[in-house]
Structure formats: C-alpha cells, structure tokens
Amino acid sequence: MELNEEYWDNRYKTNEIGWDLGQVSPPLKAYFDQFTNKEIKILIPGGGNSYEAEYLHEKGFKNVYVVDVSKTALNNIQNRIPDYPKSHLIHDNFFNLDLTFDLIIEQTFFCALNPSLRPAYAVKTHELLSENGKLVGLLFKVPLNDSHPPFGGSKEEYLNYFQPYFQINTMEESYNSIEARSGKELFMILQK
To answer: Do 116 and 148 contact (CB within 8 A), yes or no?
Structure first.
C-alpha cells in the first residue's frame, strides 16, 4: 500500500477516517487554552479536517497553518470555516515545507506516516521550528501495526527519534484523552 496523495484523498472522499474525532482533541484543547499570545505561528502537519485549527481560529489565533496532501481534507476545512485564510491551508507534502514555526502540533500525522519516515519526521520538525520552538501533541502508545495506518509504537521507540534533536519536557500517558483512546496516547512537549 502506497500512502500517497491519492490514498489519503480517497480516504477523505469515502469518509474512511476513523482517526477523526470530529472535535478538538481534549489534551490539545487543554494545552491551547493556556496560551495568551495569539500571534505565534503554528503548524498542524497532516492536519486532515483539523478541528484543532478550527478551535484555534475561533479563539483568535492569527497564524495557524495546516499542511496536508489531501485536497479534499483542506476543502473540508474551508467549507466548514469560510473565513479561514486560504493561504494558511497548504496542499503539499509536509517534507516539502520550507517555513519556520513557533509551534508544531502533532495529532495523528506521525502515526499515519510509514514508520520508515519517522527519523525524517524528527529531523524535519526540528528544521521547521524556530529557536526554542516546540513540538506538542499526541502519539499512539499501542503496538506497532505493520500493515496499515495508524502505526503505533512505544515511548522508548519515540525517544530514540526525538532525543537527538529535542529536549523532552513531557512524554507521558495522556490523562485526558477521549474514552476510546484512554491509556493509548502519550502527550508530548518537546523543545528545540
């Protein structure tokens, strides 16, 4: 199975998006609610329908960008939030980005990537972050599925990817996940 643009766009077209919560993830919402600076530049890679971007937009954040290979997913955001800046919805591969952000939000993108790309993800997030920038989000704490996404993993595995590039401020089991994911998510705050 090739996890390319056609694959992901078809998943959105056929509504085969079991990872989609239909709302902002509670751990991320709690994290966002701590912010006072609404000018920070935020990236949500592989954002899909991105209820996180919608929540931040509604809260007045001005610089929230979503990158996704699925044009359908980006159109879904634009249709749901007509005043969302079109220039902040980037139809491209995350690994092609050449911008800088203060914060990168991880919400189901890492686990959707082919596991062979995980080292490159760690390098790319580090590259895209400004000095002292943060990578914040959720990783699945479930056995690695080797045939199709979502691909899980363990804290030990994830630390191997991120420790060379980031200070690990937090990587612990999420205490406020939705019920279906309780005990299956790690919440992380990594600083460049």
So the answer is: no
Q: How does pLDDT run across 72-86, given as a tens digit for each residue?
A: 989 999 999 999 999
CA angle centred on 51, ends 112 and 76, rounded to 5°: 85
Give the N- to C-terminal CA distance of the chain in Å, as an integer: 33
Instruction: For the chain, list the strands marked E by DSSP.
Output: 41-45, 63-68, 89-91, 101-107, 129-140, 167-173, 185-191
Can you read off the two tokens belonging to residue 155? 């804290």
Question: 90 by DSSP, 3-state: which?
Answer: strand
Distance CA 85, CA 66 (A): 10
The pTM score is 0.91
**171, 8, 148, 65 alpha-carbon torsion, rounded to 10°:** -10
